[in-house]
Structure formats: structure tokens, C-alpha cells
Amino acid sequence: MGAKYVWIVLPGVYFLVQAFSAAQYATSQGHTSVSLYCYMIGSLAHFCLVQLFVNGFDWGFTGVCIAISLSFAVRFLVVLI
Predict the structure, then answer these.
(1) CA 57/CA 66 separation, integer angstroms
(2) Which of 18, 36, 49, 51 could form a disulfide with 67 if both were Cys (CB 3.0 to 4.6 A apart)?
(3) How far apart are CA 37 and CA 50, in angstroms?
(4) CB atoms < 10 A from the CB of 30, how many?
(5) At a CB cut-off of 8 Å and minimum separation 6, what does 67 contact?
(6) pLDDT tens, 46-75?
(7) Considering only CA atoms, which of 21, 67, 31, 33 is closest in space to residue 48?
(8) CB-based contact 29:79 (threshold 8 Å)
(9) Largest CA distance in the chain
(10) HEC string for the chain
């Protein structure tokens, strides 16, 4: 089960690292609210995706893993915008 988690979440970790780096860069430039919005919207997206994948599609553990990976990508997109 751990290997399955790693294989699904690992591609999303790239987006998490990029989002974290971009948010910290924006904070260092004086745009402190960017980091706040990045994590707030990413967490909200994660909550909604977990509800959709686990309860709606009945994907269970795989749905949680996919939701985590997609929420990392959402955080990255929020920072880019």
C-alpha cells in the first residue's frame, strides 16, 4: 500500500516543491498574501477532491492519493496566477 501511495503522489510532489518555492519567492518580494492564498485554495481543493473521489466515485485509498497529487498541482497553479 505504501508503494502505491508513492507511485501516485510522487508526480505531484514536483508541483508541491515548485509551489512552495514560488510562494516563498513571492513572500520575499513583499507579496505575503500569495502564500496564504496558495495554501488556502490548495487545502480547499484537497478537501473537495477527497470528498468527490472517496465518497462520490468510491475509489478509497487510491482516490485519496490522487486528491493529494491534484491538490499539489492546484497550489502550483494558484501561485502562477
Answers:
(1) 12
(2) 49
(3) 20
(4) 7
(5) 46, 49, 50, 52, 53, 54
(6) 999 999 999 999 999 999 999 999 999 999
(7) 67
(8) no
(9) 43
(10) CHHHHHHHHHHHHHHHHHHHHHHHHHHHCCCHHHHHHHHHHHHHHHHHHHHHHHHHCCCCHHHHHHHHHHHHHHHHHHHHC
Q: How many CA atoms lie within 13 A of 64 on its CB side?
A: 7
CB distance 47 to 33 below 8 Å: no
pLDDT digits (tens, 9 = 90+) for 25-43: 999 999 989 999 999 999 9
- 7: number of Cβ within 10 Å: 10
